[in-house]
């Protein structure tokens, strides 16, 4: 099916999110829509999907003008969408989520859950997913939840399929699997719009690339274009794609010392198994591993979010185990959680309010239980400018921002106070190249200021670029700790459980 957008314009108040955008996607084509966070990519696709109504422009399918009053109309016309922020109901099972809105019924209107389960299994088997139809979505890791979103879209035989930042929560292996699925769908004739800001993915899978900046199409490129050329089109300037840093000047003592750390879940499962780590002031320890091998629980144990923790987490002579999250944050620990939407932000609060979530008792912003609005507004405006947070104002609800701009709010909050330890889980997940450059510089600057830094990432390029030393986790334990310049191939084998030939870090 051929998709054509003509002159699409969408405004939010004085903000022009889409400015007379023209786009054509041919049948059996993967068309990448590349751009910074807040460039208008997701807004454009939400117009296509019927979630937003454009002020101007037309949508055509096979040269026929469409009128979508909502997502139901779009789906009926053959359009499917995998959303950046999951459209799932946590208390429903996988099968219930997939059948929602397209319910199979038996006699007397009873839901045919067996048919829904079979349908989930059939689609999952077709594309190599391992998903339990009866699992509660709220209990699934974010990577598996993304698979459920994909199954939802694929289960309805969409002729035009939109993937909105689909790899933001996937591991490198899962991303490669998704690339294969997209190619398979393309070869079967499906038209695919792939929204992303990840240059490697675009060059690997796209047939054509359209670049959007500040709501306008600024150019088209072939997949053979260099990363530098694509990044410059996205940002409007030359972008430094490699991390520039001096050799670390780590202190001989102090910082963070973790010994015999274990985390055992309520059902007796050991998810962190006897971990020892040292992170000295002035160095970055990067933690690598396939998602689900204990990295999340390790971070949660350090910042006080995990239960069933034994061992010691010593920060400058004080043991953090058993302390509240508030006490740990007040001790100078900055924390960027891996899931900003669930754990990093309050969507209904303003950008300004989210920038002081962990400083609610700070006299600079609060007096007698009342927020000092002028001080908060001035602080928020400075952070918005410094971190290039794309928002209409400091009072805008943070939940209305793009995913990358939400991440910038979290980073800005955590790095805008004195720190004794900075822990960042997936710090650039869902963030564009320009913002990645800035965040990486901030992390290196924290290291150079003498802060011990832990970075957990499933992106091996990020691990290799930032880590002065790299700890690799597998099944809850540390396989080994190696120098930051260790080749990707070696790290990949370690992530599969293989011991390094010689541990030199």
UniProtKB/TrEMBL annotation:
The protein, known as: ABC transporter
Name the species this protein comes from.
Microbacterium testaceum (Aureobacterium testaceum)
Query: What keywords are assigned to this protein?
Result: ATP-binding, Cell membrane, Membrane, Nucleotide-binding, Repeat, Translocase, Transport
User: What InterPro entries does the record point to?
Assistant: AAA+_ATPase (IPR003593), ABC_carbohydrate_import_ATPase (IPR050107), ABC_transporter-like_ATP-bd (IPR003439), ABC_transporter-like_CS (IPR017871), P-loop_NTPase (IPR027417)
Q: Which GO terms describe its cellular component?
A: plasma membrane
Record domain ABC transporter: where? 3-239, 256-500
Pfam families xrefs: ABC_tran
GO MF, any single term:
ATP binding
Q: Where in the cell is it found?
A: Cell membrane
């Amino acid at each position: 099916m051929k998709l054509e957008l003509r002159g699409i314009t969408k405004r939010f108040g004085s903000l022009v999110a889409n400015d007379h955008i023209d786009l054509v996607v041919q049948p059996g084509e993967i068309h990448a829509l590349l751009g910074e966070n807040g460039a208008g990519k997701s807004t454009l696709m939400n117009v296509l999907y019927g979630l937003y109504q454009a002020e101007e422009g037309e949508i055509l399918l096979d040269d026929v003008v469409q009128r979508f009053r909502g997502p139901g109309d779009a789906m009926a016309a053959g359009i499917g969408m995998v959303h950046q922020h999951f459209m799932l109901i946590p208390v429903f099972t996988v099968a219930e989520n997939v059948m929602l809105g397209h319910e199979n019924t038996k006699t007397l209107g009873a839901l045919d859950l067996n048919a829904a389960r079979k349908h989930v299994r059939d689609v999952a088997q077709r594309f190599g997913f391992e998903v339990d139809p009866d699992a509660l979505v709220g209990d699934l890791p974010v990577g598996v939840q993304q698979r459920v979103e994909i199954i939802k879209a694929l289960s309805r035989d969409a002729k035009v399929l939109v993937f909105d930042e689909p790899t933001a929560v996937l591991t490198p292996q899962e991303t490669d699997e998704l690339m294969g699925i997209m190619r398979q769908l393309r070869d079967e004739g499906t038209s695919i719009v792939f929204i992303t800001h990840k240059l490697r993915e675009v060059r690997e899978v796209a047939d054509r690339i359209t670049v959007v900046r500040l709501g306008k199409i600024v150019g088209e490129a072939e997949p053979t274009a260099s990363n530098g050329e694509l990044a410059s089109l996205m940002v409007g300037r030359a972008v430094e794609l490699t991390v520039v840093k001096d050799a670390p000047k780590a202190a001989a003592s102090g910082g963070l010392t973790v010994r015999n750390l274990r985390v055992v879940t309520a059902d007796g499962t050991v998810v962190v198994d006897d971990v020892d780590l040292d992170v000295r002031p002035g160095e970055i320890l990067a933690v690598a591993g396939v998602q689900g091998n204990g990295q999340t629980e390790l971070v949660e144990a350090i910042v006080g979010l995990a239960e069933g923790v034994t061992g010691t987490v010593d920060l400058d002579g004080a043991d953090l185990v058993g302390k509240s999250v508030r006490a740990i944050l007040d001790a100078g620990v900055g924390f960027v959680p891996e899931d900003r939407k669930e754990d990093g932000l309050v969507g209904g609060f303003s950008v300004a309010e989210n920038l002081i979530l962990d400083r609610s008792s700070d006299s600079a912003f609060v007096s007698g239980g009342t927020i000092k609005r002028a001080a908060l507004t001035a602080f928020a405006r400075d952070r918005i400018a410094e971190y290039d947070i794309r928002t209409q104002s400091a009072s805008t609800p943070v939940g209305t921002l793009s995913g990358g701009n939400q991440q910038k709010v979290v980073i800005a909050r955590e790095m805008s106070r004195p720190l004794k330890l900075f822990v960042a889980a997936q710090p650039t997940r869902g963030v564009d190249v320009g913002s990645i450059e800035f965040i990486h510089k901030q992390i290196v600057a924290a290291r150079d200021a003498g802060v011990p830094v832990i970075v957990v990432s499933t992106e091996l390029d990020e691990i290799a670029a930032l880590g002065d030393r790299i700890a690799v986790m597998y099944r809850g334990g540390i396989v080994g700790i190696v120098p930051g310049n260790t080749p990707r191939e070696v790290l990949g084998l370690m992530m599969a459980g293989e011991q390094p030939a010689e541990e030199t870090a």
